């Protein structure tokens, strides 16, 4: 039998629980707000660093071009041509598909997702780079001309900015780095070598390579943010 005292106590407990429940929401909101502010802060720092690096690259464009032109030799040039040839997006796509197929046959859903994400990042970076190339119409260093920027052009001679090779390669391997930094770190020299090869064969300026790398990193971060369970992969070893 419920006495008036029991009913009153029950009501008080219910009110207390309700008030306690109300106190939880502001705490979670404050935590999310802190995370959001921290994320915005990191993005601002990244933007400032990227802007400084890009501005520095543009400043040293001519100096780097002249230095490379004065230090050419036949063996190095042939090697760099091969690097440029096999460092294009079709080779990256073939590698990504091969790795994705291997992971799928090994029943590794996480790594299949990683490799497919690498291909998606590559495709986005390649498409964005292509649009920028056509829109800006920057002449390649090998083109003898007084002007550098010509606006919308469809000729490959005016597709210097940014480097499609570097944008695709950076996006491709940056996703791998975000998924597993130990494995990705091993592959970091690949886009760097590709970028240097593109400058060595007079296909791009330093700023073309740097801006392409920034574009590739941005595409990789966005793809990894939405498609990869990074928290579950970053501590995982290479077990496929």
Description:
The protein contains ten helices and no strands. 32% of the residues are buried. With 240 residues, the protein is an all-alpha fold. The C terminus is likely disordered. It folds into two domains: 59 residues; 160 residues, no CATH class.
Q: What are the salient characteristics of this protein?
A:
240 residues, 77% helix, 10 helices, mainly alpha
Dominant shape: globular
Q: In what range is the share of β-strand residues?
A: under 5%
Gap from first CA to last CA: 64 Å
pLDDT averaged over residues: 85
Number of strands: 0
Discrete helix count: 10
Q: Which structural category fits the helices and strands?
A: mainly alpha
Compute the gyration radius: what is it? 26 Å
Question: Quick one: biggest sheet?
Answer: none
Q: Give the proportion of residues in helices.
A: over 70%
Please provide the ordered H/E string of secondary-structure elements. HHHHHHHHHH
Low-confidence stretches: 4-9, 12-29, 230-240
Number of folding domains?
A: 2
Would you kindly provide a brief summary of this structure?
This protein is mainly α and about 240 residues long.
Topology at a glance:
Layout lengths: L3 H56 L1 H10 L3 H13 L2 H17 L3 H28 L27 H16 L1 H7 L1 H12 L5 H22 L2 H4 L7
């Amino acid at each position: 039998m419920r006495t008036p005292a029991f009913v009153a106590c029950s009501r008080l407990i219910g009110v207390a629980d309700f008030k306690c429940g109300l106190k939880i929401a502001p705490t979670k909101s404050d935590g999310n707000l802190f995370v959001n502010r921290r994320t915005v802060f990191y993005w601002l720092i990244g933007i400032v660093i990227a802007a400084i690096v890009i501005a520095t690259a543009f400043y040293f464009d001519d100096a780097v071009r002249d230095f490379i032109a004065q230090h050419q030799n036949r063996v190095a040039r042939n090697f760099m041509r091969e690097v440029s040839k096999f460092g294009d997006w079709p080779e990256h796509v073939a590698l990504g598909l091969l790795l994705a197929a291997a992971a799928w046959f090994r029943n590794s859903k996480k790594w299949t997702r990683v490799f497919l994400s690498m291909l998606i990042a590559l495709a986005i970076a390649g498409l964005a780079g292509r649009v920028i190339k056509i829109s800006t119409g920057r002449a390649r260093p090998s083109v003898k001309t007084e002007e550098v920027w010509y606006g919308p052009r469809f000729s490959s001679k005016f597709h210097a900015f940014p480097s499609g090779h570097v944008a695709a390669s950076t996006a491709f391997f940056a996703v791998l780095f975000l998924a597993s930094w130990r494995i990705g770190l091993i592959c970091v020299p690949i886009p760097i070598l590709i970028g240097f090869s593109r400058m060595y064969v007079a296909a791009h300026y330093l700023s073309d390579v740097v801006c392409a790398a920034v574009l590739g990193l941005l595409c990789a971060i966005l793809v990894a943010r939405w498609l990869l369970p990074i928290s579950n992969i970053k501590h995982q070893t290479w077990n496929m």
